[in-house]
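CATEGORY: protein folding

GOAL: derive structure tokens
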Amino acid sequence: MVAHKISEIKHIIEKDKNTDGDYWLNVGNEMIYKILDTFNESDWKELEKDLINFKDAEHSIFARAILHYDENRIVDIDHYQLFFKSFILLKDYEDCDCLLFDMMYIENIKNPDLELFNNIKSKIKLLEDSGFATNEDILHSAYNSIEKAIKNF
């Protein structure tokens, strides 16, 4: 059952992956949210495990969608953790660079773990070393956010 739900999410993303951001903010994310609204605790755990099987476009769009998932919903999931796990798994440097702008949400992870933080830090370093971190201020801010999170762990 959950595999079908995850497949539906991937289908929504695949079908409209080349559509602009306004579409996702106003329509696409809500279609994903309607599926996520049906998830139980077990489904969320399965989704988290299945993130490794997402394609890059799926990671990028899903990460942006999940970041704002609980704004108008009462859910007991750590959507920030899912966001950062998707960020880590992204291979597309350009999308990773865009997601650096949301690094300040690191402090909102409900149940952080040091491995996740270290993986995020490694991803930021990879972006810096590859030259794809296009904005030095954002890169510096991302480093500060992850260093603060590690220090407070």
User: Anything to note?
Assistant: The chain has one domain: 2-151.
